[in-house]
């Protein structure tokens, strides 16, 4: 340290390193160069589809609603949901084959759980004398459409439930399984039967579900729905549309100012179904365009579906490439919906919560003076200058870096 204290050059280099190193995490909307520059729950992204080529810190994680507002019925929360959760881009089939099928997500189910996803859409097929997750057609799975055995992903979910005793997960099965008790067997093999929420407790008359606290206390923290009505009687697995209303999936569910129900679902305003699922993804996934889809258009569709569903906010918001957006994305959409459901605020982060009980007074909101920066596509005027794609960092970060450098410089200049 003696040589350092006597060397002005070394001191200057040290100060410069502090000033320009990513020691201060960047907030949403700030210019970044890599994911680690950004604060927790953010990643460094561009969205060329919206004309935003400036790398910015972008939200990928919603607020955990039950950690913010506690004790409400299950249907009084919104859960981020991934469409074809298992269809990870860039992977090979567990059979060893190349996959020639659409891919809808960028990460594993374990990673999705870590990032706050709590709803999973899984397509299950009979394949190779087992149950597999396939993105196929015609009700049949092939080597080139098969991703993984369902057991592998179900074990990932079991590991999460074991490690997080207050968390609740929902699985929506697109069901092509015809083998006798095929679903029951794979859930049993995965060790998930003990967590499954019982069919007998699911309300069919539009009443509230049990509270999340009750579900956690009874360790009934896995809600499973199937697309085959016969499985409710034969295997005790809930037929989705006895309990859920759901809008049209694919391009038909992305028409502005429209929120029609899918064919299997009751009309969106059927209040005898307690849960509302909103889909917002294309017929054919488009990784580059999804950042634009998962931004202002998604927020608009949720409000449209709120009206269509009889003034009910969605309980599940299902998207492709959930991490991609032009700012707040699906995470922001989930927070907005949770705010309306849990406390009547524009975001769950605005809810005023009793520190002792964890309960919120409906309509009591603590709105920050400074809202998060809007996506670049909504900015009124682009910044002037030679390089509008590389906007300056947030002034607070600059001030903190300057202060850090000033204090460090003063300290190093002192001689004892």
Question: What structural keywords apply?
Answer:
single chain; 416 residues; alpha/beta; TIM Barrel; ten-stranded mixed beta sheet; two-stranded antiparallel sheet; 12 helices; 14 strands; 27% helix; 18% strand
Give the C-alpha Rg.
24 Å
Poorly predicted runs of 5 or more residues: 377-396
Secondary-structure-derived class: alpha/beta
Largest sheet: 10 strands, mixed
For the record, what is the CATH homologous superfamily label of the largest domain? Answer: Phosphatidylinositol (PI) phosphodiesterase
CATH class of the largest domain: Alpha Beta
Oligomer: single chain
GO molecular function: phosphoric diester hydrolase activity
Keywords: Signal
Protein name: Putative PLC-like phosphodiesterase, TIM beta/alpha-barrel domain-containing protein
Pfam families: PI-PLC_cat (PF26178)
Q: What does this entry show, briefly?
A:
The protein is α/β, with parallel strands linked by helices and 416 residues long. It contains twelve helices and 14 strands.
Task: Give the SSE layout.
Blueprint lengths: L1 H5 L1 H13 L21 E6 L4 E8 L5 H4 L10 E4 L26 H6 L4 E9 L2 E5 L11 E4 H14 L5 E8 L5 H8 L22 H6 L4 E5 L3 H5 L3 E2 L4 E3 L28 E6 L9 H4 L2 H13 L7 E4 L9 H14 L8 E3 L6 E6 L29 H19 L3
Parallel strand pairs: 3-4, 3-12, 4-7, 7-8, 8-9, 10-11, 11-12
Antiparallel strand pairs: 1-2, 4-5, 5-6, 13-14
Helix pairs in contact: 2-12, 10-11
Q: What does this molecule look like?
A:
The protein has helices at 2-6, 8-20, 65-68, 109-114, 150-163, 182-189, 212-217, 230-234, 290-293, 296-308, 329-342, 395-413, and strands at residues 42-47, 52-59, 79-82, 119-127, 130-134, 146-149, 169-176, 222-226, 238-239, 244-246, 275-280, 316-319, 351-353, 360-365. With 416 residues, the chain is an alpha/beta fold. The protein folds into 2 domains: 1-22 and 35-57 and 388-416, no CATH class; 60-365, Phosphatidylinositol (PI) phosphodiesterase (TIM Barrel, Alpha-Beta Barrel). The strands form 3 sheets. Strands 3, 4, 5, 6, 7, 8, 9, 10, 11 and 12 form a 10-stranded mixed sheet that branches. Strands 1-2 form a two-stranded antiparallel sheet. A hairpin with a 2-residue loop joins β4 (119-127) and β5. α10 runs parallel beside α11 (329-342). The protein is globular, with a radius of gyration of 24 Å.
